[in-house]
Amino acid sequence: MSKGNVGVHPLAAHRQAREWSQAELALRAGLPRSSVSAIEAGRLTPSVTAALAVAGALGCTVEELFRPVGESAEQGIQWAWPPRLDPSRYWEAEVGGRRFLYPVESLALNSTPHDGVSQRLVSRPKGGAAFEGTLVVACCDPAAGLLAAEYARASGFRMIVLQRGGHAALDLLNRGLVHMAGLHRSTLEAQSRNAEAARAQLGEGCRLLRVADWQAGLALPAGERSRSLSAIARRRIAWAMRESGSAARECMDEALGGRTARGRVVFSHAAVAAAVRSGWAGAGVCVRISAEEEDLHFLPLRTESLDFVFAEAQMADPRIQAMIRLLRSRPQRRLLGELPGYDARATGELVRG
User: Fold this and answer.
1) Is the dihedral of CA 336, 338, 344, 348 positive or negative?
2) pLDDT per residue as tens digits for the range 177-190
3) 60 phi, psi to nearest 5 deg
4) What residues does 95 pair with on adjacent strands?
5) Domain extents in the chain
6) What distance in Å separates the CA atoms of residue 134 and residue 219, rounded to the nearest whole number?
7) Is 307 helix (H, G, I), strand (E, B) or coil?
8) The model's pTM
9) Which fold has domain 3-65?
10) 254-289 b/e with 16+ CB inside 10 Å = b?
11) 147 or 107: whose pLDDT is higher?
12) pLDDT tens digits for 229-247?
């Protein structure tokens, strides 16, 4: 809890962080407003049923809400992973009832200011951070920064984007370090691959939320006009390659038809396009929007489905519910459908993994 909330009941602090009235929390939890007021004032000790109801509505743990007033919430905070630099800026968020510090990364996808600065792994918070109202998403969508801005505007929550390929994103989700992981292995010809990959790494009990379908293909120099994939695959050129385990790497390997590629590994669609634009790579696999942003020639190879995977047990989390509402909204679907290579006709669909 931030320093400005010392002495405030944790239930009130969580409610105020979401800008909910007592009446709105009561409605979401199925309790009388007078009960919420009495709990926050310390006049009422909630039953187990009532405590679980308000914790579920707020998307946090009973322990977070009903620790003794004034007890420090700083206890138990841990780094999601150690920062590479010292000092290091960080964001703070709660995932699955645990509070984590995340080293700041990818400012191109995140306009969210950092919450504090650490030195020798000791944090110095700036104050006012709404860690309970932060959604942490690991994905490689180059338009995730736009989605984060719309999410904040529509929900009042904030979204932190960690740029990761599908395999790495699922690993973070499996370790309980993020709320959602982006995955785009499904294609028009194999539409269940996202669900299969999620089950293989996470087991049963996950959900998949469709963000969009998009075009993946070859980014080629602007002057390139060849439409022959086989001719390009035979050339002795340097490739901008994605990391092993990513869908883009799989797509590149299929395009090469078993030929060995030479080049360097980069870690995002934008980095692939930038490598081709700069001239050190003659080709690379990325999504259409990244190629067009660099004014490159784009040769489409397949249509993929980008899904956000999350644990079914977190379905009631208000931050996840806010993302579902956003992706199902007509303005967001229209916005996504206007991006190069994106198809929003299935955006917002929710299926079990």
Assistant:
1) positive
2) 999 999 999 999 99
3) -140, -175
4) 98
5) 3-65, 78-203+318-332
6) 34
7) strand
8) 0.78
9) 434 Repressor (Amino-terminal Domain) (1.10.260)
10) ebbeeeebebeebebbbbbbbbbbeeebbbbbbbbb
11) 147
12) 999 999 999 999 999 989 9
